[in-house]
Amino acid sequence: MLRRRFLQAIPVSALGLEPRYKIVTSFSPAAQPGMPGLFPGAVVSVHSEKSIDADTEKVDASVVAEMMARGMRALTGERDTRDAWRRFFGPADVVGIKVNCSGAPNIMSTPEVVAEICRNLIAVGVKPSQIYIYERFLDQMESVNYPRYVPAGVQIHTVEKPRGSIANYDPKTYVEVNFFGEEDTRSNMVRLITERFTKIINVPNMKDHGASGVTGCLKNIAYGSFSNVARSHSGAKTETLSFIGTLASVEPLRSRTVLHIMDGLRGVWHGGPFSPTRRFRFYPKRMMFGTDPVAIDRLLLDIIDNKRKAEGAISVWDRSMDRVKPGSRPDADPNINRFVREPGHIGYAAGLGLGTYDLKKIRVENIEI
Amino acid sequence: MLLLALAAILPGLFWEQGTGTAPSLEKAGIKRIYVPAALADAWRAAGFDAVPVDDATRSRYQSAQPPGVQWQVNTASATRTPWIDANGWQFIRKPRAAWWYELPAGAAALAAAEAFAYGVDAVLRIDPADLEPLGRMLTFLRSVDGPALPALTNITVVDDNSPELDEVLNMLARRNLLFRVASAPDPSSDLNLRPGPDAADPVLFAVKARQQLTDERRLVRIYGSDTVLVRLAGDGTRARVHLLNYAQRPVEGLRVRVRGIYKTGVLHVPETEGAALADYAASDGATEFTVPRLEVYAVIDLNR
């Protein structure tokens, strides 16, 4: 046997073991945890045809501002936009904005959206220096160039410099689990979350995901706030079903993530979380607001799956092995999966108390601008 | 836990160039060298402690491979694990052997650290461009040299003289499963392994060994790098952790877990004044700390 062949790992699951999570944290839940937060089961969905030009992908910042103002007022029931933001944030807060840059520069938390969030925070007294836009990987973050859009003084923080470094993760707050026999069995929480932030705003996109089915609020806040998470995929199998919700439920991440603003100006209906070509991009021109990540993601599931059906692609729920080709290009045939997808991760997270999964119990307010 | 005596031996440099290069050696702080027998007198006359090496001498050394990492970007691997070329496993199997490194450029400092960490007698034939980095590493090794502490292990591998044993040991070392090799099982070990037919697949053998031992009983764990291997030595009151980074790039924020409670820890790294361990914690039967930056080699001294 060649020595190189020795390196092919043997999945622990193949040896008859299931994931067993050990959560290590010294933080207790807040009296009112951020997830599902102040408005469990509530989603405000704001659509504007004018928000982005589907041909040029140019974003209209003034329309984005209007969408955000209307969405936040509807979510909170406040008549004044600043009062709506004050329901969540005050001058003493240090706010992390979890953007999503995994598909950058073609799809990401839109800079105009992130800039408008910053402006609203500043309007309620949060100093720019107390606002941190954060993401894990430097190359992805730099490809967006947020500093060009956001108010001066807002901090841009990349966690892994260089990629793989765990220096900016908290060594005392982590989830330990052995999925596939990997040597490093810990996923540590971003240190800023445990040591600096008092609140977090989650800004995911509307995207298909080759492993988790879709990637929305839960996937963005979970996999974007911990180290060493790619180990949850191997061959055709992914452990995203339980790992995403487990990570999202760890304190203080759960308590401090108080608001989700899903940026669906652009979307990806296949090949996500990446978007190297426009072939699988689409333009929902929609933003969703809420404190309940499960409820928003439940709606996202249907948005992505309906789009896939309209394009003649298999459902995100398809688990047939003859459709799975591990290692295939993510942007190739939309009827081929790289992994057996796990869209059930959203329902799993509901079971952990992170939100409402039952469509009958989700209250959606649609706003057209 | 079984103990193996470590000898505090500094690796030697094999230098084939003439005494005209003496200033370079002196600048690197190297005064003791191994030289071709024909050059020995001249080097001694130049004030060096020169050890002659002839063919007969050379034949007494066993070959150590150049240490390093082979990244496998095109090889499917569930854990994306790079291949590490390391010699610790064979140093453990043959503790009384003397070793000879033939090293490409860039590998001298790591090779010196590796040989020192395992306490073996080693000679390094280097690329001359590595003279200064080697000199700096040897200076550091001298600064942390001291009475040898016995190796700490909790796995005994019974040597059945099978051809598969080498790769089994390599895979155990690769996973930082700390072992000794013996002719018979040791009841005091947490785990005794007989290679047997299972050794035909050394990776699976190591995976099973890890499962049988359990991660909780491992003497050491590494988080934040898959290119760092550990050598652990100690006695009842103290322990020394040797960290060897086989990659050509530094590791930042390396987290280390050592079984056992140690109240204090001191970090030693080459060429860094005031380096200190971070986020030190000792509880629940283990001690954990972070090494802020690991270039090639670090030594951590722990005390109960």
Structure description:
The complex is a heterodimer of chains A (369) and B (304). Chain A is α/β, with parallel strands linked by helices. Chain A has one domain. Helices cover 25% and strands 22% of the residues of chain A. Chain A contains ten helices and 16 strands. In chain A, strands 2, 3, 4, 5, 8, 9, 10, 13, 14, 15 and 16 form an eleven-stranded mixed β-sheet that branches. The longest helix of chain A has 18 residues, at 293-310. The model of chain A is unreliable at 1-16 (pLDDT under 50). Chain B is of the alpha/beta class. Chain B has three domains: 2-144, no CATH class; 155-216, no CATH class; 220-303, Golgi alpha-mannosidase II (Immunoglobulin-like), CATH 2.60.40. In chain B, 23% of the residues lie in helices and 35% in strands. Chain B is built from eight helices and 21 strands. Chain B has helices at 22-27, 40-45, 55-59, 88-93, 108-117, 131-144, 165-174, 202-213; strands spanning 2-4, 12-14, 32-36, 49-53, 61-64, 68-70, 83-85, 98-102, 121-125, 151-153, 155-158, 179-182, 191-193, 220-223, 228-234, 238-245, 251-259, 264-268, 278-283, 286-294, 297-303. In chain B, strand 2 (12-14), helix 1 and strand 3 (32-36) form a beta-alpha-beta unit. In chain B, helix 5 (108-117) packs parallel to helix 6 (131-144) and helix 7 crosses helix 8. The longest helix of chain B is centred in the middle third of the chain and has 14 residues, at 131-144. Chain B is globular, with a radius of gyration of 20 Å. Chain B starts with a strand and ends with a strand. The A-B interface holds A 1, 3-4, 6-11, 15, 162, 164-169, 171-172, 178, 180-186, 188, 227, 230-231, 234-235, 327 and B 72, 75-81, 83, 167, 171, 175-176, 200-204, 207, 210-211, 215, 222-226, 249, 251-255, 279, 281, 288, 290, 292.
